[in-house]
Amino acid sequence: MKTEQANDSPLLQAIREQIDMQPGRAISFRDYMDLCLYHPSLGYYMNSNRKIGRAGDFYTSASVGSVLGDMLAAYLRSFAETRSGDICLTEWGGGDGTLARQMLDAIRSGSPALYARLRFISIEKSPVHRSLQSEALAPHMGLVSYLTAEEWHAAGPWPNTLVLSNELPDAFPVYLIVSREAGWREIMVGWDDEQSCLTEVERPLSGGELEAFIIKEAIPPRAGQRFEVNLDALRWLRSVAGSLGNGSVLLTIDYGHVREELYAPHRMNGTLLCYRKHQASDTPLQFPGEQDMTAHVNFSALIDAGKEAGLEPSGLLSQKQFLLEQGLLDELSDHDARDPFSPQARRNRAIRQLLLSDQMSELFKVLIQKKGEPH
């Protein structure tokens, strides 16, 4: 597949240099996606452009009022009730800090005793997002720390810790594979000199992790069907699990499915999508560094990786189920129907949107994995 380039940006030049350095003049889609999203200065998540909200490219559940943050605060209260001493809340990849601010506001106002024994740690790769977080979390600076992933792992094991991520694994770079009559092929990214554009290049698999993943997952070899393989998400989960102590929980919120749904016959083109100015497309070779790129999460693979690393699955719920279990319906309140802009009316709309919106209520899942017994 060829595609016209939207620009001749510095990032595109960096990608071309990486391609030209390879003997076959092609890089894995995983490495291409990593450059697009996480190049230290030019990547989508690393530059200063606004990503989330009306002025950005996409919304998250935390964009819909403070409902998700309030319900996660309710979960944290239940978590803390069965544990003594200090409680640590660690958010991984917290973006602009909106969700953490919502949670901490709710804990401070509704559970001051818990707030007094709480420590919040942010692990955020993007300097731009860390800066936004420091502004958002300024009212809570007394309990907020910023650590790199390496610092967090070095300080483990972490007992009585709730590790939270909201839409993180879907943003890890993925490999692309396709089934052909002659066998599995990896879809890579090359450069077409004649058309002066990035282009897809297929190569036979060379064994290794990709082939092992295909075998382990029993991915069905339907001719022409494409799949994403998110090995980075599995590595992340194993590393987090290895640094957790007893009584800790990993709570992963994201959109995706179990493997049977992800590998279903109707998904011939996989799930990879790009978002730019709130428009979705399946053109990842366009606008490098200027659009979000994401693929649905394989929750079955995350559960299996967690088991291998000492995490027991405690639940895989739709976001709707999770919110209801935390008492979301109790948050609905009577209000003056003549004023649709009152705080109560706006909150009721946010609750209904999270519960009734097809995309957020059912596609989004909450995976809860626990390590050891609380103490």
Shape: globular
Q: What would the average pLDDT be, to the nearest integer?
A: 89
Residue share in helix: 25-40%
Strand proportion, as a percent range, falls in: 15-25%
Structural class: alpha/beta
| Topology as a string of helices (H) and strands (E) | HEHHEHHEHEHEEEEHEHEHEEEEHEHHHE
Cα gyration radius (Å): 21 Å
Number of strands: 16
The N- to C-terminal Cα distance equals 55 Å
Q: Catalogue the unreliable spans.
A: 1-6
Q: Output the number of helix runs.
A: 14
Biggest pleated sheet: 8 strands, mixed
Describe this entry's structure for a reader:
The protein is α/β, with parallel strands linked by helices and 375 residues long. It is 36% helix and 24% strand. It is built from 14 helices and 16 strands. The protein has helices at residues 10-21, 29-38, 67-81, 98-110, 112-116, 127-136, 149-154, 208-217, 231-243, 259-262, 299-308, 319-325, 343-356, 358-363; strands at 26-28, 87-92, 118-123, 144-146, 161-166, 175-180, 183-192, 197-204, 226-229, 248-257, 273-276, 279-281, 292-294, 297-298, 312-318, 364-371. The strands form 3 sheets. Strands 2, 3, 4, 5, 10, 14, 15 and 16 form an 8-stranded mixed β-sheet that branches. Strands 1, 6, 7, 8 and 9 form a 5-stranded antiparallel β-sheet that branches. Strands 12-11-13 form a 3-stranded antiparallel β-sheet. Helix 6 links the parallel strand 3 (118-123) and strand 4 (144-146). Helix 3 packs across helix 4 and helix 9 (231-243) runs parallel beside helix 11 (299-308). The model is unreliable at 1-6 (pLDDT under 50).
